[in-house]
TrEMBL record:
Domain notes: Has four distinct domains: an N-terminal nucleotidyltransferase (NT) domain responsible for UTase activity, a central HD domain that encodes UR activity, and two C-terminal ACT domains that seem to have a role in glutamine sensing.
Catalysed reactions, as listed in the record: [protein-PII]-uridylyl-L-tyrosine + H2O = [protein-PII]-L-tyrosine + UMP + H(+); [protein-PII]-L-tyrosine + UTP = [protein-PII]-uridylyl-L-tyrosine + diphosphate
This protein's UniProt keywords: Hydrolase, Magnesium, Multifunctional enzyme, Nucleotidyltransferase, Repeat, Transferase
Activation/inhibition comment: Uridylyltransferase (UTase) activity is inhibited by glutamine, while glutamine activates uridylyl-removing (UR) activity.
Listed PANTHER family: BIFUNCTIONAL URIDYLYLTRANSFERASE/URIDYLYL-REMOVING ENZYME, BIFUNCTIONAL URIDYLYLTRANSFERASE_URIDYLYL-REMOVING ENZYME
GO biological processes: regulation of nitrogen utilization
Superkingdom of origin: Bacteria
Source organism: Rhodoblastus acidophilus (Rhodopseudomonas acidophila)
Lineage: Bacteria, Pseudomonadati, Pseudomonadota, Alphaproteobacteria, Hyphomicrobiales
Cofactor(s) recorded in Swiss-Prot or TrEMBL: Mg(2+)
Start and end residues of each HD domain: 504-626
EC number: 2.7.7.59, 3.1.4.-
Region named Uridylyltransferase: 1-386
Alphabetized SMART domains for the sequence: HDc
Protein name, UniProt field: Bifunctional uridylyltransferase/uridylyl-removing enzyme
Length: 935
């Protein structure tokens, strides 16, 4: 093993200051001595020597990486880890170069060559899984010999399995490339001589500065900011994604790099400290820059070491590990993961603040085009001449402060600034936002109690044209969390689950945006019902407040809906809401999950479901408001969460409940509704004879005619008729429903207790996610089951091919050609184990009050492949008939509801049998033996 010691005096280090024990640095003299000894044994140019030399280099790299990892995991900083790895790499490159000249190409010893680190490596920090970016700078003479040296060095690096990005150019070639390519210019901003003729690099940088940088700052800045926009769009437009990309995401390391590149290019300086002297950063802001950089580097290095690769996405399974390694502990109602991620998102916000500072300063220098600024901070259309500016002024079409004492003279101006911007639909100048941040201590209890400040805030909140942008700016500046202290508790708070895509504060701001979009009529085609309801709502101020506050109590030990309602009762009067408005807002917050849960997990054709919900809502006004809030809430959760299936369920629940609240539910009795349903179908089947139709009607029980809509009744009649003609007791049919965003599978088969379980298992084998199931039995013993599965493809042709494969699997399973249970057991053993990442305690609730006829069994727990099959198999094994199943998944959490009876058609009322049912269903979630993926 290569000895480790202090670097020899001639080993020049140009990277960040190294703060590691001297023992951790490679003794290159010893390394070269080891190579000399190998050359004597094997001969310098033999394959045996090369193989042995590669092993020496590999051992040194591995030992250096292990020491860097140990330093990091014992509490060392991320930048120190990166600096250590970069220094180790430098020494290896110097040793490789010396080895090539001494033992491989001794006749090239006098060749002029400069090996330059560029990019991240050029900054003197290297992550464990990062590429090694090198520029081999030639002087133009003896080029063939110099390129042979480069090639020999690269072969050693490739044999070491290193990912090397490299270019071999002269000074002139570098300048020519830089004039044409922004990426080349970026690499030349951060360069560091590793070995060789440093004069070549000095010449290149001097000419690069004079001939290119000096005259192209605006062009470079615009290109880098546009590049940032595109990168952020690809990685996810919000910096508050709960699984962020540490390198490429908004507020990540690349953003820090970009603003540093821009600043260095525009100010023509070589290090961060010089930016303070140039007036760009204050000392405090420079320290913030360093803290952000060090924290993000710590996260990234830990990720690379933990995964053994260049992993940049901070996924849920990594978050728990990193929270522990970085020393986070649970506290203040938050888990260690939530505290770690809160720190991450606060850091990402700081990166955004620093970006704003740099952009504002560059605009002052006219080094940055306005169009880019507007793209970054949000383009707000100027409607008319600015009005009601109060103590503020307009500068370059943005609201700004005329003097630095504007907030000291009247702290209400800290709220008025955002009101003026929202009122005039104008952005706020970054200099004003910078002063706001410095003035945050002035937002105290006195200001929070100020009637004028609260009036202005409520007007900001209820201004549909600009409320989301204004509230977002207030949140970014730290004003929102200080003015509404309860909101401050959930700023940058993540929810450690797979359902929510954003932090709590980001989700709430997006929900406000959804509500404003509904009011402005942006969703008339997509959301016709709620778009019609919104203009008719009387208490719109209460609705806006409820949307802003509905998750404000997340992260507290008590139920967040109940705690949130209490906070709404406290905040409402302060903002100027009447008692009636405040109570309405509090009720909406407390019930904000009710409509969604009932729509997705209850039988909406059961009169008891509608009656129970109507009893909670009580008035049509509350029903309208809750419907609108529910839609805004779901749509703000994240991409793909809202779909037509959920919309249809909510509309059905709304219309059925409105009918009850309007007093019209009893106007048509059950028998008359069944007869009307049958008449509607008869009109659509004119080719059927009366005896044929009468026989068909007799096959169905009354519940079928009440639950199934006309298009499905027609489809079922034709399918059952065809099955009878073909003497086929097993048939499947499938179709897509783009509006509901589901694919429907209809199955006709002889009824037996395990039927739904087999169907669910076949769907799971095909990777189909069941979201709803309607189960009917005909009087002659056939089952008629309609299964709705989530779409996997946008194009109907692709989705139909997938549905055909799933339908075939169902038929094979029902014929006994494949053993679903055994195949699912094998699949489950090798599937990703969510139990290692998430903790979702299983729960079973049995309620006999929710339906006149059925026991309602609600099962919740950690989702996994085949779960629905196992649950339905357990129910059938316990001799229970499933009348309907309602399947909901909230990320990693499954909530499945079954309407069941025993074999006699009675509810499950016996306490001993209920206890046994709970026990058996909870056992379904018990961990099962697993095998490695490689097994």
């Amino acid at each position: 093993m290569t000895a480790l010691a202090a670097p020899p005096s001639h080993a020049k280090w140009n990277g960040p200051r190294l703060e590691l024990p001297m023992k951790t640095l490679i003794d290159r003299a010893q390394l070269e001595a080891d190579l000399d000894q190998l050359a004597e044994c094997h001969g310098g140019e033999t394959p045996a020597f090369r193989k042995a030399a590669v092993q020496v280099f590999a051992d040194a790299l591995a030992q250096g990486a292990e020491i860097a990892r140990a330093e990091l995991e014992s509490g060392g900083g991320g930048l120190a880890c990166g600096a250590h790895l970069a220094f180790v790499e430098d020494e290896i490159l110097r040793a490789i170069h010396a080895c090539v000249l001494k033992h491989i190409l001794p006749d090239a010893a006098s060749t002029r060559l400069c090996v330059v680190a560029v990019g991240g490596y050029g900054r003197g920090a290297l992550a464990p899984g990062s590429d090694i970016d090198l520029l081999f700078l030639l002087n133009g003479k003896n080029r063939g010999r110099a390129e042979a040296v480069v090639e020999a060095m690269l072969y050693f690096l490739w044999d070491l399995k290193q990912k090397v990005g490299h270019a071999t150019r002269t000074v002139e070639e570098c300048l020519k490339q830089a004039r044409a390519d922004m990426t080349i210019r970026t690499t030349l901003i951060e360069t560091r001589c590793i070995l060789g003729d440093e004069g070549l690099l000095d010449t290149l940088l001097a000419r690069f500065d004079q001939e290119i940088v000096r005259v192209t700052a605006p062009e470079f800045v615009a290109a880098k900011l546009a590049e940032r926009d595109e990168r952020v769009r690809r990685a996810g437009s919000s910096r508050y994604l709960v699984e962020p990309n540490v390198k490429e995401g908004k507020g990540g390391l690349r953003d820090l790099n970009t603003l540093f590149w821009i600043a260095k290019y525009a100010y023509r300086v070589h290090d961060a400290e010089a930016l303070c002297a140039a007036g760009l950063f204050s000392e405090q802001e420079l320290r913030l820059f360093r803290r952000c950089e060090n924290f993000l580097w710590s996260v990234r290095c830990h990720m690379h070491f933990h995964t053994g690769r260049a992993e940049e996405r901070l996924s849920f399974d990594i978050q728990r590990v990193l929270a522990e390694k970085l020393g986070f502990k649970p506290g203040a109602g938050l888990s260690m993961v939530e505290r770690f991620m809160k720190r991450y998102f606060v850091t990402a916000k700081h990166v955004g603040d620093l970006t704003n500072i740099v952009c504002a300063a560059l605009e002052e220098r006219q080094a940055k085009p306005r169009a880019v600024f507007d793209r970054i901070f949000g383009s707000l259309r100027r409607r008319s001449k600015p009005r009601d500016l109060g103590p503020f002024a307009i500068e370059t079409d943005r609201v700004t402060v005329p003097s630095n004492d504007v907030f000291a003279r009247d702290p209400v101006n800290l709220i008025r600034l955002f009101w003026v911007a929202a009122h005039n639909e104008l952005p706020i100048h970054p200099d004003a936002l910078r002063l706001v941040t410095q003035s945050l201590p002035r937002i105290d209890a006195k200001l929070r109690a100020n009637a004028e400040a609260n009036r202005l805030f409520l007007e900001i909140l209820t201004n549909a044209n600009s409320n989301e942008r204004a509230l977002r700016l207030m949140n970014e500046a730290g004003v929102l969390g200080r003015f509404i202290t309860e909101f401050g508790r959930i700023v940058a708070l993540m929810q450690f689950n797979m359902y929510h895509h954003y932090t709590v504060d980001e989700h709430l701001l997006r929900a406000v945006r959804e509500l404003a979009s509904l009011e402005l009529g942006h969703y008339k085609q997509e959301l016709p019902l709620t778009s019609e309801l919104m203009p008719t709502i009387t208490h719109r101020r209460a609705l806006y407040l409820a949307v802003l506050l509905h998750d404000i109590a997340k992260g507290r030990p008590e139920d967040h809906s109940i705690a949130g309602a209490a906070l709404a009762r406290k905040i409402g009067p302060r903002l100027g809401l009447s008692d009636a408005e405040t109570e309405t807002a509090a009720w909406l917050v407390e019930q904000h999950l009710t409509m969604s849960n009932i729509a997705q997990s209850r039988d909406l054709a059961d009169p008891r479901t509608i009656q129970g919900f109507a009893g909670k809502v009580q008035t049509i006004e509350r029903l309208k408001m809750l419907a609108v809030l529910t839609v805004a809430d779901i749509r703000a959760v994240g991409p793909g969460v809202w779909n037509g299936w959920k919309g249809e369920l909510l509309r059905t629940l709304y219309w059925e409940t409105e009918l009850v609240l309007a007093g019209g539910h009893s106007s048509v009795d059950r028998k008359s509704r069944v007869e009307r349903s049958q008449r509607e179908l008869r009109e659509k089947l004119p080719a059927w004879s009366d005896p044929e139709f009468a026989d068909y009607v007799a096959r169905h029980y009354p519940a079928y005619w009440l639950k199934v809509d006309l298009p499905h009744r027609i489809q079922h009649a034709q399918l059952l008729y065809a099955s009878a003609v073909e003497l086929n007791s097993l048939a499947t049919e499938y179709s897509t429903d783009a509006f509901r965003d589901v694919t429907e599978l209809t199955v006709v088969a002889p009824d037996h207790p395990r039927l739904l379980s087999i169907i669910a298992g076949a769907c799971a084998l095909g990777g189909a996610n069941i979201v709803d199931a309607q189960v009917f039995t005909t009087a002659d013993g056939l089952a008629l089951d309609t299964i709705s599965i989530s779409r996997a493809f946008d194009q109907d042709s692709d989705e139909l091919r997938r549905a055909a494969r799933v339908a075939k699997s169902i038929e094979q399973a029902l014929r006994g050609e494949i053993r679903v249970t055994a195949l699912l057991a094998d699949k489950t053993k090798t599937a990703p184990n969510r139990a290692e990442t998430f903790i979702v305690p299983p729960d079973v609730v049995i309620d006999n009050s929710l339906s006149h006829k059925y026991s309602v069994v609600e099962v919740s727990g950690l989702d996994r492949p085949g779960l629905l099959h196992d649950l339905t198999f357990t129910l059938s094994r316990l001799n229970l008939n499933i009348a309907s199943a309602h399947i909901v998944t909230f990320g990693e959490k499954a909530v499945d509801t079954f309407y069941v009876t025993d074999l006699t058609g009675a509810k499950v009322t016996n306490p001993a049998r209920q206890a046994a049912l709970r026990r058996h269903l909870i056992e379904v979630f018990a961990p099962k033996p697993r095998v490695p993926k490689s097994a």
